[in-house]
Amino acid sequence: MREWNSLQEREQIELAFQKLMNTLVTMIRHRSYTSDKTELNDLLNKVLAWKKKFQKQHNLTFLSREEVLEVYYKFDELKEKYLYDPSYGIEGELTDELVIWMWELMLLRKKQIEEWRETYG
């Protein structure tokens, strides 16, 4: 049973990474986000590095709370900048999508840490 949960968990994490990366790439290519292209590229590189490490370790315990929150807050700042600005169309919602998928990744990381603690004390 735990093996199935683990496989399902890994698939959920892979999906969250894929959604984050796809959204970041879309934003980088969109002219509305030109002023933040450098920051978006940096965030994409960070998410890619996390994904590579996850693929080797099959868990998210390598991520520190501070590192995860730093990226989450950067996504949230972008959301505040674009989502509520009426001059942007539907592309402004991409920032909201970033926050949603980062939150999902954070919850999955928390779940893995809690399960690890239950197993290994």
Outline the structure in words:
It is a single chain. The protein has 121 residues and is mainly alpha-helical. The protein has one domain (2-120). It is built from four helices and no strands. The chain has helices at 2-29, 37-57, 65-82, 93-120. Helix 3 (65-82) runs antiparallel to helix 4 (93-120). The longest helix is centred in the first third of the chain and has 28 residues, at 2-29. The protein starts with a helix and ends with a helix. The mean pLDDT is 91.
In short:
With 121 residues, this protein is mostly helical.
Give the key terms:
single chain, mainly alpha, 121 residues
Q: What order do the helices and strands come in, and which of them pair?
A:
Layout: H1 2-29, H2 37-57, H3 65-82, H4 93-120
Helix pairs in contact: 1-2, 1-4, 3-4
Strand content: under 5%
- What's the number of structural domains? 1
Q: Please mark out the parts with pLDDT under 50 across 5 or more consecutive residues, or reply none.
A: none
Q: N-to-C terminal Cα separation, in Å? A: 20 Å
Question: From N to C, what is the helix and strand string?
Answer: HHHH
Strands, total number: 0
Averaging pLDDT over every residue, what do you get? Answer: 91
Shape, principal axes of CA atoms: elongated
Q: Please summarize the sheet with the most strands.
A: none
Radius of gyration, in Å, reads 15 Å
Helix content: over 70%
Number of helices: 4
* Helix/strand structural class: mainly alpha
